[in-house]
């Protein structure tokens, strides 16, 4: 039987404020005739220099970037429907992006740059990868005390079982209900064997903290509120390591997930030609170099144009494939079942008491 809201709760939901997305505007260098609108789940500071260089070649184009997390981006675009102002959608939630394509929301685009992409890096000429993201575990070296940094998920699990008081309340990972990329990574982890399920149970027994963004988790790690961050995106990790020497990152020995950041042009895009030109610029040697200079992991080798899986991994790299295999877990009922099972795994065990130190 469906659960009904009381009148008081319904009223409360109506008056609660909705968190506004952060927006950035790059005015046109010349008199503006067009505004390119980008919905992006990539930290603006990583994209700003690339966008400014793009504007030098398009001086009459202003750019408005709407910064959202991966789930918010997907849901906002669908809610807006045909009236969406978005010209380009950029997200690392590969399954959500692929579902938009599969559901008919993407416009085909072909150019010399996109046609040169390896087959693994695009889908039906409607969805285009432009960076990689290694998925890492991050430690606050001070807070793990005398223990060596675990090199694998098995060693991490052993560490948590050996010293639970030290890590209770000090582990953070994605909230998969609120983060599209968090859901993608959890679903991929679940396909790698039984170890992930054991880790989830250990996280639950130690009162894991859930967050919607890698940057939020990195801030908690840097400030000493958290000791371990699981499944963080490598570009944001690299930026944090440069600022916080107490942090250490690990690409585990058992496997390192690698996802691709994807762009698509909606069928409703007001300026599809300009959006296509931006995709070409991101895929050009100059664009890839700018992305690399500003903390992202470029997709392509500068000379050969082949995929560039550049990460100092301790073991095998598991590239999340851009194929219809990503779609089944985006079925509404399958997604609910997966989230319910995941939530049960991290809440079934009793929480430990955090170490007062």
TrEMBL record:
Top-rank taxon: Bacteria
Record-annotated membrane-spanning stretches: none
Keywords noted in UniProt: Signal
Signal sequence bounds: 1-20
SUPFAM superfamilies: Periplasmic binding protein-like II (SSF53850)
GO cellular component: outer membrane-bounded periplasmic space
Pfam assignment, any one: SBP_bac_6
Protein name: ABC transporter substrate-binding protein
Source organism: Oceanisphaera arctica
Species lineage: Bacteria, Pseudomonadati, Pseudomonadota, Gammaproteobacteria, Aeromonadales
């Amino acid at each position: 039987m469906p659960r009904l809201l009381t009148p008081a709760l319904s009223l409360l939901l109506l008056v609660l404020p909705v968190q506004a997305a952060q927006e950035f505007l790059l005015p046109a260098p010349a008199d503006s005739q067009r505004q390119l609108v980008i919905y992006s789940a990539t930290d603006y500071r990583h994209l700003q220099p690339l966008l400014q260089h793009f504007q030098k070649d398009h001086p009459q184009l202003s750019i408005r970037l709407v910064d959202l997390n991966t789930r918010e981006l997907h849901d906002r675009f669908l809610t807006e429907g045909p009236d969406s102002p978005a010209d380009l959608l950029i997200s690392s939630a590969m399954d959500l992006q692929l579902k938009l394509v599969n559901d008919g929301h993407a416009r085909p685009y072909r150019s010399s740059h996109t046609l040169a992409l390896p087959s693994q890096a695009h889908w039906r000429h409607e969805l285009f990868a432009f960076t990689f993201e290694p998925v890492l575990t991050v430690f606050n070296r001070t807070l793990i005390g005398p223990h060596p940094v675990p090199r694998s998920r098995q060693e991490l699990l052993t560490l948590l079982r050996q010293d639970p008081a030290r890590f209770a309340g000090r582990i953070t990972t994605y909230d998969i209900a609120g983060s599209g990329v968090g859901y993608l990574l959890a679903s991929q982890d679940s396909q790698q064997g039984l170890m992930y399920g054991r880790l989830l149970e250990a996280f639950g027994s130690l009162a894991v903290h859930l967050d919607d963004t890698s940057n939020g988790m990195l801030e908690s790690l840097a400030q000493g509120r958290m000791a371990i961050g699981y499944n963080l995106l490598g570009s944001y990790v690299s930026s944090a390591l440069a600022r916080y020497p107490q942090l250490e990152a690990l690409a585990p020995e058992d496997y390192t997930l690698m996802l691709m950041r994807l762009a698509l042009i909606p069928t409703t895009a007001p300026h599809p030609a300009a959006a296509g030109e931006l995709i070409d610029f991101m895929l050009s040697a100059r664009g890839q170099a700018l992305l690399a200079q500003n903390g992202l992991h470029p997709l392509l080798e500068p000379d050969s144009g082949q995929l560039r899986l550049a990460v100092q991994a301790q073991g095998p790299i598991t590239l999340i494939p851009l194929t219809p295999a990503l779609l089944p877990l985006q079925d509404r009922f399958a997604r609910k079942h997966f989230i319910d099972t995941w939530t049960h795994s991290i809440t079934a065990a009793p929480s430990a008491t955090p170490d007062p130190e």
